[in-house]
Each structure stands twice: as C-alpha cells, then as structure tokens.
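Training component of the fellowship. As part of building independent skills, the fellow (R.M.) carried out the full modelling exercise for a liganded target. The chosen ligand was glutamine. The inputs are recorded below so that the supervisory panel can assess the work.
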Amino acid sequence: MHLDRISAVDGLVHAFLAVDADRALGQARAVDAKVVAGERVGPLAGVPVAVKDLFCYQCLPTTAGSRILEGWKPPYDATVVERLVASGLVVLGKTNLDEFAMGSSTETSAFGPTHNPWDLDRIPGGSGGGSAAALAAFETPLAIGTDTGGSIRQPAAVTGTVGTKPTYGSVSRYGVIAMASSLDVPGPCARTVLDAALLHRTMGGHDPRDSTSIPAPLPDVVAAARKADVTGLRIGVVTELGGEGYASGVERRFTETVDLLASLGAEIVEVSCPHFDDALAAYYLIMPAEVSSNLARYDGMRYGLRVGDDGTASTEQVMRASRAAGFGDEAKRRIIIGTYALSAGYYDAYYGSAQKVRTLIARDFRAAFAQCDVLVSPSSPTTAFRLGERTADPLAMYKSDLCTIPANLAGIAAASFPNGVADEDGLPTGFQVMAPALADDRCYLVGAALE
Ligand code: GLN
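Fellow's submitted model of the complex:
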C-alpha cells in the first residue's frame, strides 16, 4: 500500500531520493513467513520505515543530498539501520534532505527540494524535510532523521507530524554521515506519539562502536507514551522563546496548549533562560567549525566524485576541482566560515567565545530544570514558508531554528508535537517539549497527553 502511495504522489512531493520496492517487499514477506510459522516478532516487525539519506545502508546509494557522494554505496550499515532491519522493519527507501543536513527547507539538496504535502508551494522544513513530508503524505508510517540544530523537530512542526531529538549520545551516530559531531543525534519521526516512542526504543541505546554513546539504558519512552498523564508535572514556559518574530497563529496555538496542559493538571511556571538569545550565534560558529573538519574527507581521492583526473593533473588540482564541483553553496559557505573561525588568529575570539556561550546555555537549562520537569516553547517561529522565500537570505533561513538550537547545544532531550494549524494560513504548528538529558520519557508524557 505504501509503495503504491509513493508511486501515486511522490512525483509531486519528492520526499524520496531512492525507493527499494523489491527488497522492501522481500523484507515484508520474510516477516510474514515468520508470523505464519508462529515465531514471535517485535511490535514494529513488518512496518515500513523511510530512512533519511544521511544513514549508511549497504543496499542503496547514500548521497547526503550532495553531488560529491552521488551514487556512493556504503560498505556497511549504520547501527540504527542495522537495528531497524534486525527488528523486522521494512526499509522503503532513502529520503531527501538539505546537502549534508545543512538547511531548514531541503532546498540545498543537490537533487531538488521536497514539497510540503499541505501546500506544494511551501517548504517541508529541513534538513529532514523528506522524512517529514513522506509521513505527512502517508507515503510511510515511520521515518528516521538526524537533528543537529532542529532537523527533526522543525520539519515535524511544519508538516504536522511528531519528531524527537533524543538525548545526545543515546542513539548511535555510527554510520551516520557526520555534520557537526558534538551536536548530531539520530531520532524517530512518526505521525503519532506512540509510534515515535516505539521507533525511538528500537533505534536507540548504547553502541560500543560510537565513542560518544552513553553506556546507560534508555528511559522507558514507550511506557511514558502510554501513560499520557501530566498531573502534577511542572511545566516551564521559556520567556525567551516567543514574542517578537513569532507568527500570531503559532503563538495563539501555543498559549492554548499551555492552558490545556494546566487544565489537565500540570503546574505552569514561567522561566527565563537569558543566554538563549545568543544560542543561534554560538551554533553558527560551533557547527561550521565542526563541519569544516568533518567535510575535509570529501577530497575526490578516497570516494565519491572525482573531477579533472586526466592523468596529468596534480592531486591538489583534482581535489580542488572535485570539491568545487561536488559541494553546493551552503556547504562551501559553512566550510569557509568554520575554517575561518578555527584559524589561529581568530580561534579565541570566535570558536572559544562560542564554546563559552554553549556552557552558559547548558547552565540556563540546569537552572530552569531545577524549577520544573520540562520546558516548552513553539517548535518553529513560523509555519512553512514558500519555496524560494529564504534562499537568498541565509540569516532568515538560519532563524528557522531559533527554538530548536538551544537543546542541541546542551545535548538534552526535546521533541516536537503537532499543535493544530495557524488561523492565518491553515498550516501546521508545532509544540516543543524539552527535558533533561536521559529524561526523554518526559517529552513523550506531555506529547501523548496532548494527542
Ligand atoms: N537547520 C539547521 C542548520 O542548517 C539544522 C540542521 C540540522 O539539524 N541538521 O544547521
């Protein structure tokens, strides 16, 4: 059914970069055979899943949305993909994303943008717009993404779906193409809170192959999604994440939902996180610094695109030509900014200061969580904007992640839940819930209570 749906609508939505119909049917039949034989299978066995094209999966090319990796087939599977397949999930294919997950709209993908199923002239968010759009268009019931600064939550918000950024280190990055290693975390995308929790449980947990993986059990996110009770929960509304620059429809739905939580028995408090105002600036120094280092491996020598290798060209000439042709403008912009921020004369002024701000943001969270169990905010300041509207203005694009970036800088848990549509345009809005590291279950508790 999902393969038929993809054939019917993906020409319009362009959520997928590759679909693996035959293998998907084979995986589904294998689960079916087990069930018929009376074998026990897990709760997600036989359920289709779409995989952001940033995860290595041997069966299909992994492009990261970039020409520089076009056609590259990884020699191994990401831990997360391995776990999904081992649990019997059926991999439908790979979904579109901004190049190397850099963007908020999928418009930096080298393979063309994804369209928001709610309005095909609008962006589906990014970088994981393909996964979110595939869910919203009913092309898949489950999908996975990665969140470095909001790439799971912002697309979820603007497509009316559920997306979780798990605690940093609680879901393996092994086999996930790196963007900014100290911020990246894979997470689940779904249409319901329980679906997301089941997927979260299946993909997460300690992995000895990831050196930053936390050797601790995941909190019971599935139990929390089933409990759906906020009685007595202390919920903090973050003063800094609202007000000027936020669409009125986004604010209205947000305020109503906070009132609803109060009526369900939660205790609402207002908390201030004064350093959040500097989060965007710190992120846009730390992230490109890590990008400039991580993307150095795409040199036209080891794998991927190679340009200008005519037998006489020097190594440097081939590297230069390959990188010039293989990287898009946004990747180049970030490599240049990151290299500059890390250069000897500027390191302290830029990268060093940004790291200090990061520490202050983590302290803001610690102080806030001393007063409440979870923090809430809108997931995105606006609803889906029009394709092309922000491509000429990187700063406007970067502001799409105003609400989501603080959680990445502190490594804590956060999720976005559907929160109705804005009055002015009828487009989806998202409700963000943030919880301390390894208290991801609290996000699901709130999300499920609202569903
Ligand atoms: N939109 C943000 C950026 O461009 C976040 C990306 C992400 O989370 N991968 O960096």
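The panel noted the following from the submitted structure. The pocket of glutamine is lined by residues 101-104, 126-127, 147-151, 179, 287, 401 (CB under 6 Å). The mean pLDDT is 97.
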